[in-house]
């Protein structure tokens, strides 16, 4: 795996999110956008899991706290979906925590309650796992 391959995957994911947003527009529930995005990703041959539990361990104890990520693509990129007025630091912290707990290289935070996903409705984050991968 390389940074370039992961970046290409995130580019494709954002493109599909833009496609969903262009067709549906803002104003729907997060779950609706999630189902549409999952459908597009699967339709285009990506391995997709959604709404799976995020395990949390504290000093050897598994905590049943019902954490769930929105979408995981090709076991590499976690997508956290929102439909909020503005993305807040707590949304970023949530995604960064999921990335750390699941040991994934990259995450994308997407807000469908905006006018333009590419310009204002998405943020990407990388972890040390990503940084340690070869560029090409």
Low-confidence stretches: none
- Average of the residue pLDDT scores: 95
Q: N-to-C SSE series?
A: HHEEEEEHEHEH
Helicity, as a percent range = 40-55%
Which fold does the CATH topology refer to? tt1808, chain A
Major sheet, described briefly?
5 strands, mixed
List the helices and strands and how they pair.
Elements: H1 3-24, H2 30-43, E1 48-50, E2 56-58, E3 61-63, E4 71-73, E5 77-82, H3 89-102, E6 106-111, H4 117-120, E7 122-126, H5 128-131
Parallel strand pairs: 5-6
Antiparallel strand pairs: 1-4, 2-3, 4-5, 6-7
Give a written overview of the molecule:
It contains five helices and seven strands; from the N terminus they run H-H-E-E-E-E-E-H-E-H-E-H. Strand 5, helix 3 and strand 6 form a beta-alpha-beta unit. 43% of the residues lie in helices and 21% in strands. The chain is α+β, with helices and mostly antiparallel strands and 136 residues long. Helix 1 packs across helix 2. The model has no long low-confidence stretch (mean pLDDT 95). The protein has a single domain, classed as Alpha-Beta Complex (tt1808, chain A). The chain is globular, with a radius of gyration of 15 Å. The strands form two sheets. It has a five-stranded mixed sheet with strand order 1-4-5-6-7, with helices on both faces. A two-stranded antiparallel ribbon has the order 2-3.
Sum this structure up briefly.
This protein is an alpha+beta fold. 43% of the residues lie in helices and 21% in strands. It is built from five helices and seven strands.
Characteristics:
136 residues; alpha+beta; tt1808, chain A; five-stranded mixed sheet; two-stranded antiparallel ribbon; 5 helices
């Amino acid at each position: 795996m390389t940074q370039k391959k992961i970046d290409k995957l995130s580019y494709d994911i954002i493109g599909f999110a833009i496609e969903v947003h262009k067709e549906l527009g803002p104003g729907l529930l997060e779950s609706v956008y999630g189902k549409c995005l999952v459908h597009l990703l699967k339709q285009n041959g990506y391995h997709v899991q959604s709404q799976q539990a995020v395990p949390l361990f504290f000093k050897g104890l598994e905590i049943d706290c019902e954490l769930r990520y929105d979408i995981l693509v090709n076991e590499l990129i976690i997508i956290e979906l929102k439909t909020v007025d503005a993305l807040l630091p707590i949304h970023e912290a949530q995604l960064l925590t999921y990335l750390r707990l699941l040991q994934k290289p990259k995450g994308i935070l997407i807000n469908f309650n905006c006018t333009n996903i590419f310009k204002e409705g998405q943020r990407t984050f990388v972890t040390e796992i990503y940084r340690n991968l070869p560029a090409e």
